[in-house]
């Protein structure tokens, strides 16, 4: 079995978000969870090759399985390219707990189509959010747009949390125990905090998911896919087939660039992608 460590959503080593990738034939669920707990990446992907175009991928955090993971998918296809299971400038399909989704590779840039985008309930108790994130309630929202915290999903549910400035975003210091409890009570994986106060990219982001064992993540594909749809429904991004860049991980010293694209105007979907760098490869014995 081949094992890789891949930095996703970056073109330099030690940037982006690292993921473990295992290409296997028939590992048990128990082994997958134990292995993910041992290596302790935010997600480890386990790939089973179905045929030349189709792959089954399961994603595990250190303490649970999740339906979908953007950065681990990008890492997976970087590993599959290296192992010559896929080829550049091709289209493939992954079977996940969030459904069967297409993945496209063009000049080593990997893009995946996300699951059906959805918006959920809004969260207007700013006193609670202020307490959990240790920011003043008046810093929640946006100076130019009427944005409120709201659940969103393109495969995994997160709460989109707008804040008014870059400083406010970087000043966030969550109470992770309270955030995990809040996430569990509201049936979400975590909270994706963001600000439009940026001169580069569409938004600056930070992602917190202590409920699934990830206090903070350097690059989150599914969350930025959900954020793209949230911003589209709020009139912030409007163009289809145009690339939007989201910057994440800067607060952790692991700068990441996540590229998204709205497709199918009559039935909107979101694509998420980026580049990746292999840090190491080996055999799993």
TrEMBL record:
Is the RNA-binding keyword given for this protein? no
Q: Which organism is it from?
A: Alkaliphilus oremlandii (strain OhILAs)
- Where do the catalytic residues lie? 43
Top-level taxon of origin: Bacteria
Family designation:
Belongs to the PhzF family.
Query: What GO molecular-function term can you cite, just one?
Result: isomerase activity
- What's the protein here called? Phenazine biosynthesis protein PhzF family
- Return the SUPFAM superfamilies for the record: Diaminopimelate epimerase-like
Any coiled-coil regions, as ranges: none
What lineage is on file?
Bacteria, Bacillati, Bacillota, Clostridia, Peptostreptococcales
Any idea which UniProt keywords this protein has?
Isomerase
> Which Gene3D superfamilies does the record match to this protein?
Diaminopimelate Epimerase, Chain A, domain 1 (3.10.310.10)
Could you name the Gene Ontology cellular component terms for this entry? cytoplasm
């Amino acid at each position: 079995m081949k094992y890789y460590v891949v930095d996703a959503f970056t073109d330099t080593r030690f940037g982006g978000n690292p993921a473990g990738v295992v290409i296997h034939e028939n590992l048990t669920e128990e082994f997958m969870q134990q292995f993910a707990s041992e290596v302790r990446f935010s997600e480890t992907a386990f790939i089973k090759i179905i045929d030349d175009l189709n792959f089954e991928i399961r994603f595990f955090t250190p303490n649970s399985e999740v339906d979908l993971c953007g950065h681990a998918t990008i890492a997976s296809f970087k590993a599959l390219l290296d192992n010559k299971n896929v080829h550049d400038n091709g289209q493939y399909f992954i079977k996940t707990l969030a459904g069967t989704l297409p993945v496209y590779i063009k000049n080593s840039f990997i893009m995946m189509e996300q699951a059906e985008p959805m918006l959920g309930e809004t969260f207007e108790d700013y006193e609670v959010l202020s307490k959990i994130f240790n920011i003043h309630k008046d810093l929640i929202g946006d100076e130019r747009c009427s944005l409120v915290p709201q659940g969103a999903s393109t495969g995994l549910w997160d709460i989109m949390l707008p804040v008014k400035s870059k400083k406010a975003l970087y000043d966030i210091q969550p109470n992770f125990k309270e955030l995990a409890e809040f996430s569990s009570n509201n049936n979400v994986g975590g909270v994706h905090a963001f600000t439009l106060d940026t001169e580069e990219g569409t938004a600056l982001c930070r992602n917190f998911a202590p409920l699934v064992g990830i206090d903070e993540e350097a690059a989150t594909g599914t969350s930025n896919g959900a954020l793209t749809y949230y911003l589209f429904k709020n009139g912030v991004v409007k163009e289809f087939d145009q690339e939007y860049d989201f910057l994440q991980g800067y607060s952790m010293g692991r700068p990441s660039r996540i590229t998204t694209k709205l497709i199918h105007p009559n039935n909107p979907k979101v694509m998420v992608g980026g580049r990746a760098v292999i840090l190491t490869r080996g055999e799993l014995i």
